[in-house]
Structures are given as C-alpha cells and as structure tokens.
Amino acid sequence: MCNLYRLTTTTEAIRNLFRALEGEFPNLPPQSEHYPDRAAPVILATATGRALARMVWGIPPPPGVARPVTNIRNLSSPFWRPLLGGAHRCLVPASAFAEWSAAPDPATGRKAKRWFALRSTPVFAFAGLWRTSADGPRFAFLTCQPNATVAAVHPRAMPVLLAGPSADQWLAGADARALQRPWPDEDMTMTG
Questions:
Q1: What whole-number distance in Å separates Cα of residue 173 and Cα of residue 75?
Q2: CA 33 to CA 31: how far, in whole Å?
Q3: How far apart are CA 151 and CA 144, in angstroms?
Q4: What is this structure's pTM?
Q5: How far is CA 39 from its chain centroid?
Q6: How far apart are CA 126 and CA 141, in angstroms?
Q7: Residue ranges per structural domain of the chain
Q8: Residues 166, 179: contact at Cβ < 8 Å?
C-alpha cells in the first residue's frame, strides 16, 4: 500500500490548482518524503468555498486493528460509509507517490522506492476521507486496483488519483465507487 508520497510545490500553486481560497496557511517547504502520522495539507469543501487545512495522515482504526488506517479500499465497510458524504471528503495534494520494490537491490540489500507521477500535471490529489479524533482531524485516502505501470511494482493496489474535473467531482460528493479506478497508464511515469 502507498504509505509514502511527496509534495514539492508551493501553497500558492495548491491554492490556484484546486481553487482553495480560505484558511491561513504558511508556505510549504518541499516534502520529498511524507510518511503516515505526519501533518499534511488537505483541501476541504466548506459552505463558503474550498479551504486549505492541515491534518495528520492516518485515521484511528476500527476496533481490533492496531495501527491507524492510511489507505481505504473497502467502501462497503460500515466504518467508512458515514464518511463518504461530501462533508468528510478531502483532496490530498501530491507530486508523486512511492511503492517499494518486491525484491531488494542486489547492491544494497534493501528494497528500493519506486516513484510514480503524472505526465499531465506536476501536482494531483488523492481522494481522501477525514474524521475528527481525540488528536484532531486525521485523513486517509482511497485505493483501487493498480494500473499496469504501478502493478509492475505493487500488484495489489494504488491510490485513487484525481486531477481537474475528477477532483471537483470528488469534493462535490460524486459516487465514490465510480471514481475508485486506476489512473490511465499513458499519463503515468515511474522513476527511481
């Protein structure tokens, strides 16, 4: 599962791309490796427009699960259904996401990070859900079947990626299952 992404753009670029106009938010330092349990920018739909906010990645788990949930696959689960309405959706801006290679690098003996980005835009978003916790608001993002590019490294899943109209549809409350699909291969590139 995707538990590593990067965001290497400015707050102003995020505001412009996703039309997030509300909320005070300092300029972002480039985040070349963003892991769970760290605060990150998200875009929320509010009654008066879109807001840029900060939340921690990883929703407290349902009973019987030990770690916070960072990736959401089963939208039929009673744990996620209440969050699928528009009020608990968010966009998680990203420049790339990583999956770990299946086999270790022969030279280092360690698995390698394989980074995935889009050819059509330097910044996209993950389809996110959020909820309030005792520690404040926290988010996770949806996953889906991988496209062929991602499946070559991680055959089980990839994040649900959004850009342009699909980002607008997500925040407007469009059917989550209709948007829970892999990004087209021809627009994806792998580095590293």
A1: 14
A2: 5
A3: 11
A4: 0.94
A5: 13
A6: 6
A7: 5-191
A8: yes
Q: What is the average pLDDT score of the chain?
A: 91
Burial of 22 (0-12, 13-18, 19+ CB in 10 A): middle
Tokens 């309030």 belong to which residue? Answer: 132
First to last CA, the chain: 17
The pLDDT value recorded for residue 1 is 58
Highest CATH level, class, for 5-191: alpha beta
The residue among 113, 108, 105, 190 whose CA lies nearest residue 147 is 190
| Rounded alpha-carbon distances, angstroms, from residue 172 to 1, 37, 95, 123 | 26, 27, 23, 20
As a whole number of angstroms, the distance between CA 114 and CA 48 comes to 39
> What pLDDT is recorded for position 4?
96
Strand (E) or helix (H) holding 12: helix 11-18
